[in-house]
Design brief:
It is a single chain. By secondary structure, the protein is mainly beta. The protein has one domain (about 1-90): Nuclear Transport Factor 2, Chain: A (Roll). It has 1 helix and 6 strands. It has a 4-stranded antiparallel beta sheet with strand order 2-3-4-5, with no helix packed on it. The protein is elongated and about 50 Å long. It starts with a strand and ends with a strand. It binds zinc ion (ZN). Zinc ion binds near residues 14, 74 and 76. Zinc ion (ZN) binds near residues 11 and 18.
Length: about 90
Amino acid sequence: MKIPKEKKIYCKHCKKHTLQKLKEYKASTKSALKKHARIHERKHVKGYGGKARHTISVKKQSKRPTFVITCSICNKKSYFVANTRAKKKAELV
Ligand SMILES: [Zn+2]
């Protein structure tokens, strides 16, 4: 999937379409000892009734790539998710 580096996307801060710079979003590694991680483990993973809830039968082959966009006017960041699913990594042209 090819996508331009700069694109006109709606900015919720400016309340209009502005030219925004795109950058690929990369999820940060999550700490296993944080509070939400401990609660998730206790409620959904551990014990009886834990595993049955989170078994995934079908794994999807493609993903909708996410980008971090920066507004050229107000310099605020937001997310942009592509409309189509792509098997290959997103390529900024
Ligand atoms: Zn803006």
